[in-house]
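sanity check this fold:
=====
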Amino acid sequence: MTAELPEENRGGNGHALITGTGAVTPIGTGTDNFWDAALHGKSGIGEITLFDPSPFPSHIAGECSDFDPTDFMSKKEARRMDRYAQFGIAAGIQAAHSAGIVDLIRERPERVAIVIGSGIGGLSTWERECRVLNERGPGRVSPFLITMMVPNMAAGQLAIMLGATGPTQCPVLACATGGEAIAEGLELIRRGDADVVIAGSAEAPITPLSMAGFCAIRAISTRNDEPHRASRPFDADRDGFAMSEGAGAVVLESPEHAERRGAEPIAAVAGYGRSTDAYHVTAPDEQGRGVERAMRLALADAGLEAGDVGHVNAHATSTPTGDGPETKAIARVMPQAAVSATKSMTGHSFGAVGATEGIMCALALKHEVLPPTINLENLAEDCEKLNYVEDEPREAPGLKAAISNSMGFGGHNLVVAFTTV
């Protein structure tokens, strides 16, 4: 099956090489820890400790419990940043060191771009300072409120820390933000606006207001007595997603630049597809037509046939409204592909998750092994019977291409295609 788009729109647009990665997730900080935990089917969902969850229907979330911001910045710097920005900067710094570009940035800073998005930004700062305003008056509001709250500050602060003076962007596309950041990074490389791009996203949504809002729309799992089994994409007993937090970042380079400096690429970002459902603010089109179109566009942009794709990291949030339509779309486009739903382990970190799942795809291609979907015990009736990677990682010798699906509130669909080098 081909991408079914006009021939002049197929492929040939150029790719970017992934030469470094960084991750802050509920199953581990650092790419090695993150990947190892995923292959062992570790769940990062547990009782909330960031605030008292007892008044809420859901008491569980995926917290980045092993994260210490002072591993990446000074205590003073950390105090002046929201938690989401700390995550984003940590992931970006990890990625820069992983790729070995820190000295390169100092030599040619104008050729290094930063694209770090966030679906929400500094929500915990906003909530805290609203309480200060109401309880203590405007004179006690922090002078750092604005710079801690705005969603572009992770990108701006990372650029300052690394000294990168190329273009800086902050995509905001709800749960499709991370995929959009990688897509925008690819475009910066393609246009020649940068030789190197640090692309990713960050989110810290585990706050009382956020929890109250998602509980109000009954989107979150209330499996409080078994948090490790709460996130169960495609399963008949799923009752909503498990909220989580974190960040992911990749270093993208033009092939010419990576070759000149002798970089060892992990995988390539070959293309992407975007679409909008124009259907509902929270639910996707019931037949998955929007994400289907985005998948076909991604294949076309990457110059791939559907049969080339051996792996799909599905958006698969563990909600009845989302999982079924996505499986229908996958079944129509690439029914042969092995499907993982890694939110079963990490939970759903909203704007950040597209970046961390992109890293999963890159590592699956490099190591020729697919991460599992845990907690899939009985396939839901509304989900298609696909080639799911269940319980255990799966060896995938000869894996050539993988895609990562992201679907955001507002009907946004973003699909990124990754290939081997």
